[in-house]
Amino acid sequence: xxxxxxxxxxxxxxxxxxxxxxxxxxxxxxxxxxxxxxxxxxxxxxxxxxxxxxxxxxxxxxxxxxxxxxxxxxxxxxxxxxxxxxxxxxxxxxxxxxxxxxxxxxxxxxxxxxxxxxxxxxxxxxxxxxxxxxxxxxxxxxxxxxxxxxxxxxxxxxxxxxxxxxxxxxxxxxxxxxxxxxxxxxxxxxxxxxxxxxxxxxxxxxxxxxxxxxxxxxxxxxxxxxxxxxxxxxxxxxxxxxxxxxxxxxxxxxxxxxxxxxxxxxxxxxxxxxxxxxxxxxxxxxxxxxxxxxxxxxxxxxxxxxxxxxxxxxxxxxxxxxxxxxxxxxxxxxxxxxxxxxxxxxxxxxxxxxxxxxxxx
Length: 361
Known about the structure:
seven-stranded mixed sheet; Metallo-beta-lactamase, Chain A; five-stranded mixed sheet; 10 helices; alpha+beta
């Protein structure tokens, strides 16, 4: 039986959970006046995403959308008839571009002729897609070769990324969100707080007067958001962005009710930020401890993630491994050498250049 505090909130892992269970798949629960938690099913192991419906004066605002699947559209149709009281969506807000958050934004916008709000970097990233009807390009294969992955395995990874589940419907318009933007919805003001690392310019929504934070994937309980490097930007340093964002989020009060995109709403924001920071510093220390001899990213992946199941897990794990390796290279703790078409990482000699100079042809 779970421990409870004086308010009857479940205590688990240093966090407080006001609701012992999530709504059933496709169902809703009111978590604050005019704020409804919608549990949308997903077609893989992480089997849900939390969406939020905000009651406005003459309709509803949807925060995130679910994936571009018939199942998502079926759930939305049921919500329109059973929850929305015949009132339309008047806007859609996408915290970021990932397919479970923006998959049917275009469909919702077209259905209700309503605007879609997101940051400019997320809108641009939404339109960077792998050509599903073509074989993987040289740049994709080169990225994974340098990480130590063979072409056959890379092709299977490409097939996973080209799955229609991961391809949001095209969106031809948006209204820009940026740090400090305010959305006035149903008499409540939501301020945009930007986080980075999981995605380029992730928009969280903070209602100061009501102590509410819709955190998207920027802060999750128990599980950690993916912070990865991918073929589109091979030398990126998203972990630096992620850790910087943790420090910025500490400016928000610890008292907020965090409404995350996965699992259950919770209290104790600062405790969770401490846990996320410690998690990544632990991975950095483990990776560094295993680089006395040069190792490829694929070899280091087996150190950080010894138990994986399938190509999708490998994609995520390799991206995370590279994020930690690139961070340590940028900090001067690792050296990245190119050897016979592979990048190999080794502990840096004090005073040495940590990055092999880029070749310009």
